[in-house]
Design goal:
By secondary structure, this protein is α+β, with helices and mostly antiparallel strands. It has a domain of 125 residues: Glutaredoxin. It has four helices and twelve strands. Strand 11 and strand 12 form a beta hairpin. Helix 1 packs across helix 2. The longest helix has 16 residues. The two termini are 28 Å apart.
């Protein structure tokens, strides 16, 4: 709850914005069908289940974060679009909370395991905040956790250097200590004049 409040303070209350694929999410209370199945209404009980590798190379599971609120964002370290905005907002929310947010686990789960090695994630995330946690793993393990959170991803383009550009969700999912997800924050440009 505290992290969601801090994210709202940082991000502001704003309308839906397009994701990497240019699609603007519908604002409806009706379930929306997509590749991962019908959308879940908020608040929703989510049981995060994963066995991944963190940015230090350590194998972790959801048990490593048990009893801690989590903010989970799906993206990738080389993202040229929304990921830098989202990670900067999460970092700013952590700074706003200070010691009151010390128990929060801020987690980036990659959608690009080919490039997001533990070392690559450690280097990228350190630029935003020392507490950010990067998780990577096999494509099968990552697909499993994306299915739990109903996150679709696909490669949509390549950079001039040949690197993949992915469409992926752009929301930070806030989970309480009981894994009850009651907030989903979209990263957008703040009202204080950040450019669009």
């Amino acid at each position: 709850m505290r992290l969601a409040l801090a994210l709202v303070l940082v991000v502001g209350v704003v309308p839906a914005v397009p994701a990497h694929d240019g699609a603007t999410p519908a604002t409806t209370t009706e379930p929306v069908a997509h590749e991962a199945g019908p959308a879940l209404p908020f608040p929703v009980e989510i049981t995060p289940h994963f066995a991944l590798i963190d940015q230090t190379g350590r194998a972790v599971t959801q048990a490593d974060y048990a009893g801690r609120p989590m903010v989970i964002y799906f993206g990738y370290a080389n993202c040229p679009g929304i990921c830098p905005v989202a990670l900067a907002h999460i970092a700013e929310a952590l700074d706003i909370l200070g010691p009151d947010g010390a128990d929060i686990a801020p987690i980036l789960i990659t959608v690009d395991p080919a490039r997001d090695t533990p070392a690559a994630m450690a280097e990228a995330l350190a630029k935003y905040h020392p507490r950010l946690i990067g998780l990577t793993g096999s494509e099968a393990a990552l697909a499993e956790v994306r299915a739990v959170f109903q996150v679709d991803t696909r490669q949509i383009a390549e950079t001039p250097e040949g690197g993949a550009i992915f469409a992926h969700g752009s929301s930070s999912i806030c989970l309480g200590v009981t894994a009850r997800s009651s907030h989903c924050c979209r990263p957008t440009c703040r009202r204080n004049g950040w450019p669009n």
